[in-house]
Design brief:
- Keywords: Signal.
- Residues 1-19 form the signal peptide.
- This protein is mainly beta.
- The chain has a single domain, classed as Lipovitellin-phosvitin complex, beta-sheet shell regions (Roll).
- The protein has two helices and 16 strands.
- It has helices at residues 115-119, 217-223; strands at 11-12, 16-17, 23-24, 27-28, 36-51, 54-73, 79-93, 100-103, 124-130, 136-141, 168-178, 184-199, 202-211, 229-235, 240-253, 261-272.
- The strands form three sheets. Strands 5, 6, 7, 8, 9, 10, 11, 12, 13, 14, 15 and 16 form a twelve-stranded antiparallel β-sheet that branches. The chain has a two-stranded antiparallel ribbon with strand order 1-4.
- Strand 9 and strand 10 (136-141) form a beta hairpin.
Amino acid sequence: MRFALAAVLLLAVPQLALSDGAEKHLLRYKLKTGDTLRWEVDQRSSVTNSMEGTTQEAQTKTVSVKVWKVIDVTPDGEIEFLNLVERVRMENKLPDRAAMVFDSTKGEEPPPGFEDAARAVGVPLSSIRMSPRGEVIDRDIKHHQPAADPHEQVVFLLPEKALEVGESWVQPIDVLVKVPDGGQKTIVAQRKHTLKSVSAGVATIATEFLVLSPTTPEIDGQMAHRMVKGEIRFDMDRGRVLTQRLNVDRRVLGFAGASSSMHLVTRLEEALQPAPTEVASKP
């Protein structure tokens, strides 16, 4: 079971006024050693498959708290952090079966199929060192998850230069997919981001996943869950994401034969949680 651990921590330097009056915004990561940030992530999906006259629908819902713990910031701005899932509640509903639920806060044995997810709660999943722009310099997997997506976006790559509102940048990505002969094929894709607006210190970014290589219905079926479109809002002054909303609504015909069809709908909503208030103890 995959966690949506994808996260964005951004900092914009003060706006740069150009000679023609336009404003540009330079986005860079900037965190402090000892910072701990938490996001509540609500992810829901529904997939309806039709094959040979039979239609089945499966639904999943996952609510989790993901955490970034900053363990080092070098003088030149490189940031090292641990990412983990602090708690999770997962619910699966398969055709003709009762819903199966796992809640990590209950302290109970996980139902069959949830064992890997249970083992991944509360432990560092990976240690990541990145540049101020978000280029991953080193990634050390601390806890192996058999079902984890190797292409999962943990760090959001920032633009190389300052941008005006309306300008875009892209993050190239290659995805390995299976082909009918049992081999694999590389699909060239990219994540495209556009700076939509900046207001009251909050920047809004539109994001979407685009496939550039020719595909087949079989490949489209494997790529469907990646075809997200959405919006990210971040606090430029404090340098961290406020909310993230990503959606998929994808229909694929012929993904498993001429008469097959798939309809995938997913929604991910992520929100930064307030830092705990420190209260002085009484003498």
